[in-house]
Amino acid sequence: MKRRITFNSPAVLTFALISAAVLIINTVTGGAMNRYFSIYRTSFTDPWMYLRLFTHVLGHADVSHYANNMMLFLVLGPMLEEKYGSRMLVEIMAVVAVVTGLLHIFLFPRTALMGASGIVFAFILLASVTGSGKGIPVTLIIVALIYISQQIWSGVTVHDNISQLTHIAGGLVGMGYGMLLKK
Length: 183
What we know:
Shape: globular
Structural class: mainly alpha
Number of helices: 7
Strand content: under 5%
Largest sheet: none
Number of strands: 0
Oligomer: single chain
Distance between the termini: 41 Å
Helix content: 55-70%
């Protein structure tokens, strides 16, 4: 019996491959791509700002940042894409990108944001809603409490370059979509 490799999750795999290409090009060019694949406050008349609202999720600071985002993204994404379809998953990723990008430029105007962690958190909470049955799953409540409280705790006690607000916002978008799609 022959087994063949399949491109089982087109939206998720394409996103991961584009993110890898952006990382490679950015590394080779010494960070020249950062201006296109990170979001930061600029003038609303700058057309690049609107593109960056979507593309900042494709940029990653380094291989470790990319790997940490892609591990859960590639574990959860194919299951969610099979359940909800490629179009819906792309919509969720786009909404997370815009929501987290806008929150960032309004609340943290002096820093840049890049990475797919908001999408990863959206996938975590979306996956915890996914399943049969009506009502609010207990798994969603537990996962939301653990992840959101951990992000709040980290935001208060740890000073690093990680945007806990992006994680929380992405998780809330994923949870919202999960509850809407469950109906």
